[in-house]
Design goal:
With about 140 residues, this protein is mainly beta. It has one domain: Deoxyuridine triphosphatase (dUTPase) (Deoxyuridine 5'-Triphosphate Nucleotidohydrolase, Chain A). Helices cover about 5% and strands about 35% of the residues. It has one helix and eleven strands. The strands form four sheets. A four-stranded antiparallel sheet has the order 2-11-6-8, with no helix packed on it. Strands 4-9-7 form a three-stranded antiparallel sheet. It starts with a strand and ends in a 25-residue tail after the last strand. About 20% of the residues are buried.
Length: about 140
């Protein structure tokens, strides 16, 4: 599948899959930055993308990012929509520094990964009744 991207800084490498079996491609920081303790920051990934029709781009931390850097995505994931593709729509990776120390992210450092995920678009059909006569009860209802 073709995935159209624009690099803002052409001296930084193209994203790449690190192994033949990788499902995520690495995203790097476009700039050097310092992230203060217990604060949010946006790491620029150097990419403006055109997500293919029928897909979304899921942006998640590399598995080593929390342990090595002390950074997490505060809401778990980032979703890049198909229409987020304008000239100034650089993919940004939101992070939270959960450590008591300032964290440095270096230009070119692989900090996140992108995964293309097939999606459907719902057509909503409203009903006046629930879909089942039995209710499960909510959080923790199965155990």
């Amino acid at each position: 599948m073709k995935f159209s991207i624009k690099r803002i800084d052409k001296t930084l490498p193209l994203p790449e899959y690190q192994t033949k079996g990788s499902v995520g491609f690495d995203l790097s920081s476009r700039t050097d930055m310092k992230i203060a303790s217990h604060t949010l920051a946006l790491v620029p990934t150097n990419l403006v993308v055109k997500v293919p029709e029928g897909y979304m781009l899921l942006v998640v931390p590399r598995s080593s990012t929390p342990k090595k850097k002390g950074l997490l995505i505060p809401h778990g994931i980032g979703v890049i929509d198909q229409d987020y593709c304008g000239e100034k729509d650089e993919v940004l990776f939101q992070v939270y520094n959960f450590t008591d120390q300032e964290v440095t992210v270096s230009r070119g450092e692989r900090i996140a990964q992108g995964i293309l995920v097939k999606v459907g678009v719902a057509e909503f059909e409203e009903k006046d009744t629930a879909h089942s006569d039995s209710s499960r009860g909510g959080i923790g209802s199965t155990g």
